[in-house]
Amino acid sequence: MFKTILFDLDGTLTDPAIGITNSVLYALKKHGYPLPEREELYFFIGPPLWESFAKYCNIDKQTAHKMVETYREYFADKGVFENKLIENTVTLLENLKLKGYTVALATSKPEVFARRILEHFNIDKFFDVVVGSNLDGTLTDKAEVIAKALTLLNITDTKNVAMVGDRLHDMVGAVKCGVTPIGVLCGYGDRKELEESGAAFIVKDLIELEKILKIL
To answer: Is residue 8 flagged as an active site residue?
Structure first.
């Protein structure tokens, strides 16, 4: 059924919890906000950062973007590497390429950081296309990211394309672009979130994802 698989990054292929939350804590401290327990900040993983800062700090978009700039003071050199691969990531990507799938990354994380992470874990070689947001805050909407990936891949008929992610933004973006949304529970979204946002399939981890792709 599927010939092209688009992947989210954070919470889908890698677990960035330590790096992202350390960067958020850094920004909150620098701007005078009280520091919560790390677990309270996990919702920052996945959505566009400015949206999460705006919600958490109850601030406007412009102020939220300033918080993101501060966040990146830590993330750019330290937080980006406080990360680890989710179990079976390498095996899954290797097998998809061996079977002739087209594989792309479609993330709301700035593309410059996404590429550094892929290179750090030596998995950049598996991706035909890498698309992320811009540092100026544009191209953060997941539907826009997916649409750009499809354009770069010269895909106009999306019936054989799947988007794999762990949060509602991945599912909603996929639906908007006519791509089949597949939710994974190895990240930071739960089954209810994925179901309500339109997931066509939900798998517990990347091992189950590979089994599902063999059948579909």
So the answer is: yes
Which residues, listed in sequence order, are joined to residue 133 by a DSSP beta bridge?
110
Give, as one character, the DSSP assignment of residue 153. Answer: T
Encode pLDDT of 103-135 as tens digits: 999 999 999 999 999 999 999 999 999 999 999
At residue 172, the 3 state secondary structure works out as helix
Cα–Cα distances (Å) from 41 to 109, 190, 191, in that order, read 17, 16, 19
The pLDDT value given to residue 20:
97
The residue assigned the tokens 């550094």 is 116
Closest CA to 146 of 121, 182, 113, 186: 182
Residue-range domains of the chain with CATH: 4-15+83-215 (3.40.50.1000), 17-81 (1.10.150.240)
Does this model's pTM top 0.90? My answer is: yes
Task: Point out the catalytic residue in the list 8, 10, 15, 170.
Answer: 8
Instruction: Give the span between the Cα atoms of 179 and 199, in whole angstroms.
Output: 10
Separation CA 162–CA 171 (nearest Å): 10
What is the pLDDT, as a whole number, of residue 14?
98
